[in-house]
Amino acid sequence: MSTIAFTVQDMTCGHCAATITDAVKSLDPDGRCEIDLAARRVTVASAFSADRVAAAIAKAGFTPVAAGT
Prior knowledge:
The protein is of the alpha+beta class and 69 residues long. The protein contains 2 helices and 4 strands; from the N terminus they run E-H-E-E-H-E. Strand 2 and strand 3 (41-46) form a beta hairpin. Helix 1 (14-27) crosses helix 2.
């Protein structure tokens, strides 16, 4: 399991955070998702690659950018 961080500028509220968490959990039920809404940062611990996690978040309607990019 690796930890991946994303900045998600279009995550603006608790509903957005819940939607992203649900998207990550749909991809990887054993994964962990931590949300820092104020910083618009999503940190995911998952067995899946960063690309797969980003694709799941994007499919939910958001624009994840790898943190530090």
